[in-house]
Amino acid sequence: MIDEFLAGDLGAVEKAVRAAVAEEVIPRFRQLAAHEIVEKQGPHDLVTTADRLAEEHLTDALTKLLPGSVVVGEEAVHADPAVLTALGGDAPVWIVDPVDGTRQFVHGDPGFSTLVTLAHREELLASWTYAPVLDLMAIARRGGGALLNGEPIHSGSPQPGSALHVAISHFDFTTDAEKRALSGLRAPGAEVRPCGSAGLEYLNVARGLLDATAFTWENAWDHAAGLLLVDEAGGAHSTIEGKPFRISGGNALPFTAARDEAAVRHILGLLADAG
């Protein structure tokens, strides 16, 4: 079933993503009322009506496209953490972040996206990264490369001998221990800045505009789409232990995604120095 679906035209998935965003997200961009914004675990962890309704829309649409599939969405997991167990199950899984970069969305910043990934038995198979205000649609298919607005993209390699430009977990979202774990990147050989929305940072790596990311959290909906996108654009990723990222969790953190294997090794070396 899953092989037949992947072998077909996946354009219906792109249409479903665009439709959900057009109906539930864009009408609320810069139009949110105060009651439509809720703090989950603190002032930097926000959810809006757009997040909830877009996830519901996508859950309905995607499971209809692939009967027997299930959805692991950010808001569904927040309501019931047991939903996460589907990542390790036998059913095909749609991993959904309805609004990646909710803080940006709330503040009227166009740097947000909707992330959808299709996985099966923890293998990432296809992903969609859609930034509607920026008019960017990036699609990756396992073994099929990466496209941005229909054109192939390639991560390339960083300039030899230059410091790597790295987006790291935002200071507002990191503990003191996580800041220490990333401190090795504040050394010659790297120039760091806090990340924006994870999905768009991965896209920046995939298109060669950013050398690497280094993150200290492992929510599947934040990372699945981007990791496949980077890999299919020619990049690479690894946890601090030198292992591939597992979408079901339990990863050694931090982990990095970068434009090529050499950049990954360099980042891991700097992170190891912090340990």
Automatic annotation (TrEMBL):
SUPFAM superfamilies documented for this protein: Carbohydrate phosphatase (SSF56655)
Signal peptide: none
Assigned keywords, A-Z: Hydrolase, Magnesium, Metal-binding
Reaction catalysed by this enzyme: a myo-inositol phosphate + H2O = myo-inositol + phosphate
Enzyme class: hydrolase
Superkingdom of source: Bacteria
Protein name: inositol-phosphate phosphatase
Taxonomic source organism: Streptomyces javensis
